[in-house]
Amino acid sequence: MKEIFRNKELGYVFVIVFTFLFALNAIDTSSGILIRTFTHKSYVQAVFVTLMGAGGTLGALSVLKLDKKYKLLNICLISMFCFGILISLVVFVKSLTSLLLIVTLAGILSPGIIMAAELKK
């Protein structure tokens, strides 16, 4: 742990990944509560996870293309900013459709945070 904070680059990556994983768990937990509020059908949780995964695949492909055009730090900061906005929108969710849209967009943005941090490392 000392090595992480001694090395500025590793500290930077640690903070980004820690913050992102905390936010991702928050959106997953709150979304699970919202899904149970809107419906008691178990397949909806599977749709939720599938959409996040599909979004993550699209996001990963995008990061690989953007990596050659833009600085990794810019990709990471923009992704984190947009992800933060999405998390704040969860409190305004009034329908299952809007929740599934938010989770798909979160999945798309996720690789911009994690992959940029990992590539930077």
Summarize the structure.
With 121 residues, the protein is mainly alpha-helical. The protein contains 5 helices and no strands.
Number of helices: 5
Strand content: under 5%
Main sheet summary: none
Q: Indicate the mean pLDDT.
A: 78
Query: Helical percent range?
Result: over 70%
Given helix and strand content, the structural type is mainly alpha
Give your account of this protein's structure.
This protein is mainly alpha-helical and 121 residues long. 85% of the residues lie in helices and 0% in strands. Helix 2 packs antiparallel against helix 5, helix 3 runs parallel beside helix 5 and helix 4 runs antiparallel to helix 5. The radius of gyration is 16 Å and the shape is globular. The two termini are 16 Å apart.
Topology:
Layout: H1 2-6, H2 8-38, H3 43-66, H4 72-89, H5 96-120
Brief descriptors of the model:
121 residues; 5 helices
